[in-house]
Automatic annotation (TrEMBL):
It catalyses: (R)-glycerate + NADP(+) = 3-hydroxypyruvate + NADPH + H(+); glycolate + NADP(+) = glyoxylate + NADPH + H(+); (R)-glycerate + NAD(+) = 3-hydroxypyruvate + NADH + H(+). It comes from the Bacteria. GO terms for cellular component: cytosol. It comes from Shouchella clausii. This is Glyoxylate/hydroxypyruvate reductase B. Signal peptide: none annotated. Keywords: Oxidoreductase, Pyruvate. One of its GO terms (molecular function) is glyoxylate reductase (NADPH) activity.
Length: 321
């Protein structure tokens, strides 16, 4: 039986490429050229599978892809994919859960510490030569993390990893808001499930970890921000559009909250002159939640395994439908 053919929108680490090439013929896009939607549709027209990390897909894109069985992405998030519509055309969409949980939790806790203790802005102050004998002690103050209250909005796998670090390492009290109760987390960490408004009113650190859906778009807006303490930190490691960025910028400017630490944004990369870049009470990172070599390689290999399984006519391990 001949091997199926798969298309990669970008190259992968050797381990992932080697796995795919054992079972499939590979076609990899030349990344020096822009991959337009028209070009992508053309590439998909005669393949059995595709890896479209960071691109997304809908039914219109694949309407001429009669052989296509699977679209894989080397990410956890899949909000750019019409999973239900593609499933109706017998196309699996797969992601890469589990392999990045600890790595993302590490980054989120780094953001918590930087947001509270103003590590990033004070680093820039020192580099710019603005730490002088005239610098007042009070101008360097941040907020404590140890023994404070952490509020997690979205208690999934990564949320639980953050809670573990918060409770075991920093003695934090834990509140969470989630669609369903997590009794095992409540028992292990003393976490308490509360309504969103209660969490926002009581937490010293609010961490957003919900997926982006129609229901969660701008979940945190002007009204929600107004409920937070003036000393509170808002941390986002989910998707940028879960927070109304304009409302957040206004809250930061008016200092109605102490600060924010963000790894995700409504528009990525942040364009030059963006208002967030002008603020001194934010930590900003370029969507690096899973960005370590070991984790990205593990994600690529998992995505490759999903791609191969689907291209061979099997149901992939991480099929979303």
């Amino acid at each position: 039986m001949s091997k199926p053919t798969v298309f990669l929108a970008r190259s992968l680490p050797d381990a992932a490429l080697n796995h795919i090439s054992q079972f499939c013929h590979l076609r990899i896009w030349d990344e020096s050229k822009p991959l337009t939607r028209e070009a992508l549709a053309h590439e998909l027209a005669d393949v059995d599978g595709a890896m479209l990390t960071g691109i997304g897909a809908d039914t219109e894109l694949v309407k001429h892809a009669s052989k296509l069985k699977v679209i894989s992405t080397a990410t956890v998030g899949y909000d750019g994919f019409d999973v239900a519509g593609l499933a109706e055309q017998n196309i699996y969409v797969t992601n890469t859960p589990y392999v990045l949980d600890e790595t993302v939790a590490d980054l989120l806790f780094g953001l918590i510490l930087s947001g509270a203790r103003r590590i990033a802005p004070l680093h820039e102050q020192v580099k710019a030569g603005n730490w002088t004998k005239q610098t007042t002690a009070q101008s360097l103050y941040g907020q404590d993390v140890y023994n404070q209250t952490l509020g997690i909005v979205g208690m999934g796998r990564i949320g639980e990893k953050i809670v573990h670090r918060a409770k075991e390492g920093f003695g934090m009290k834990i509140l969470y808001h989630n669609r369903s109760s997590r009794p095992e987390v409540e028992k292990k960490y003393g976490a308490k499930k509360v309504e969103l408004h209660e969490l926002l009113e009581q937490a010293d650190v609010v961490v957003i970890m919900v997926p982006l859906t129609e229901a969660t778009k701008h979940l945190i807006g002007k009204e929600e921000l107004s409920k937070m303490k003036e000393t509170a930190i808002l941390v986002n490691g989910a998707r940028g559009a879960v927070i109304d960025e304009a409302a957040l910028i206004e809250a930061l400017k008016q200092k109605t909250i102490f600060g924010a630490a963000l790894d995700v944004f409504e528009v990525e990369p942040l364009p030059p002159g963006h208002p967030l870049l002008e603020l001194d009470n934010v930590t900003l990172t370029p969507h690096i939640g899973s960005a370590t070599a070991a984790t990205r390689e593990a994600m690529a290999l998992r995505a490759a395994e999903n791609l191969v399984a689907g291209a061979l006519g099997q149901k992939p391990r991480d099929a979303l439908s």
